[in-house]
Amino acid sequence: MMDKAQPASLAHRVPDLGALELLLAIARLGSLGRAARARGISQPAASSRLRAMERQLGVALVERSPRGSRLTDAGVLVTDWARRVVEAAEAFDAGAQALRGRRDSRLRVAASMTIAEYLLPGWLVSLRAELPGTAVSLLAGNSSAVAERLARGEADLGFVEGLQVPAGLDGAVIGHDRLVVVAAPSHRWARRRTELTAAELAATPLILRERGSGTRQVLDAALGEHGGLAEPLLELASTTAVKAAVVSEAAPSVLSELAVGEELSARRLVEIPVRGLRLGRDLRAVWPAGQRPVGPARHLLGLTRATS
After folding, report:
1. C-beta of residue 242 within 8 angstroms of C-beta of residue 142
2. Which of 39, 119, 161, 183 is the most buried (most CB within 10 A)?
3. Strand extents, DSSP E, 98-238
4. How many CA atoms lie within 13 A of 6 on its CB side?
5. What pLDDT is recorded for position 132?
């Protein structure tokens, strides 16, 4: 037994909004030419659209004469229905604009500690200058925490540093960073005349960021072929805390060049050269896979690229 043919969808049976708005303009202005000008299209285009609508509906809607254009009886009925459809579309559009406005009035950012402390403040100042009505909330944590917040829908845009994009996210490189070995000026490494070796660094108990941080991920990967990291002397959850511990002469550390620039300039810390060890890393903006940033998140992403 053959299936009955399915009726065409509404999209094929009902004229589009542009055609309905043209019909309403003809009814209001009494002329196809004036209606075309009001809608910002040429008269031939308006005529073509009107004929297509009449063919679609199977009835004549407008009678044209030297004195202008007049609705047929069927045209009067269709115009009344068209008015309701257009009003409903206007209500739909107003609601969608309200939703966009609510979305565009807030921005939730999650960022790893280094980026949150040393790069984001400048980006957010620029964002406020361009989008002063946007309320921004910042959630700072390590790179793993940033990925988790994005996965749970708790952030609109994230920033991490590390070797690759975390699982479940898409991302774009927005800059580059370098990790440096630092110690207090009084530490024995600061008085060395030869470069430190990667093996010596790997074997030394250091003051480090916690597992899950971008800094720790890069360091673990770089020293894996040199015996791996020794058990840390201390593991701390913030770069500021790590720097304070190193300055107090507890032990050396490995930190972002961005984070220790001031301390190196003031000689509160010194950089220790390491032979044959590369500690570069990418800085990335990240977002849930398949969902491109929109609204203020997209605007902020553009600002980061402009300054990278």
Report:
1. no
2. 161
3. 106-112, 135-141, 157-162, 169-183, 196-197, 207-209, 234-236
4. 4
5. 87
